[in-house]
Backbone:
């Protein structure tokens, strides 16, 4: 009887090890693929909104905002506000760096390049974290909407500690160097 019990115990241990090995091989891969897919989705939304800004399609930019942002400003008011600024700058390109996703919030490190015509002509760069929130299965750009961002960060304190809101930094090119623009000077 002891020999049969010992054999059954070995079989159970072998099955458990096989299940564990299967989980180790397949689950992390699917989790990594899922995370990579989410990061790719976030990148695509950030790129799409940049292209909408670049082509001055401000109505589509408005549609990409979270509902809390859209309730604070009308579509027409948003379009007019961005339209008034259109003669002061031209967006050239965007570099999207690291993207991090945690549940329904994401952050993408970006550098926006363009040219400014007012208050003085210059080549410019803005280094900014683009925050996105997921609503109804879609990523929405919440950059600049600290109320919405803070609400989501409160529900995910670990993410908030790792990626706190950083103020955008504006740089102006002088010669071959980027000099941080400080309004206080």
Residues:
């Amino acid at each position: 009887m002891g020999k049969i019990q010992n054999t059954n115990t070995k079989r159970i241990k072998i099955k458990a090890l096989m299940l564990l090995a299967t989980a180790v091989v397949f689950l992390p891969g699917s989790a990594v693929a899922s995370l990579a897919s989410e990061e790719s989705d976030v990148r695509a939304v950030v790129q799409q909104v940049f292209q909408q800004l670049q082509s001055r399609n401000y109505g589509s930019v408005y549609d990409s905002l979270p509902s809390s942002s859209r309730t604070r400003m009308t579509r027409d008011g948003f379009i007019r506000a961005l339209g008034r600024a259109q003669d002061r700058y031209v967006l050239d390109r965007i570099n999207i760096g690291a993207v991090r996703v945690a549940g329904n919030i994401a952050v993408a490190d970006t550098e926006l390049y363009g040219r400014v015509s007012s208050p003085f002509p210059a080549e410019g760069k803005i280094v900014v974290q683009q925050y996105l929130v997921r609503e109804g299965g879609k990523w929405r750009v919440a950059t600049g909407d600290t109320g919405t961002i803070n609400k989501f960060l409160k529900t995910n304190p670990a993410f908030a500690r790792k990626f706190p809101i950083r103020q955008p930094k504006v740089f102006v090119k002088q010669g071959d160097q980027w000099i941080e623009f400080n309004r206080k000077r």
User: Anything to note?
Assistant: Residues 124 and 172 are 5 Å apart (CA to CA). The longest strand covers residues 89-102. The chain is about 50% helix and 30% strand. The radius of gyration is 24 Å.
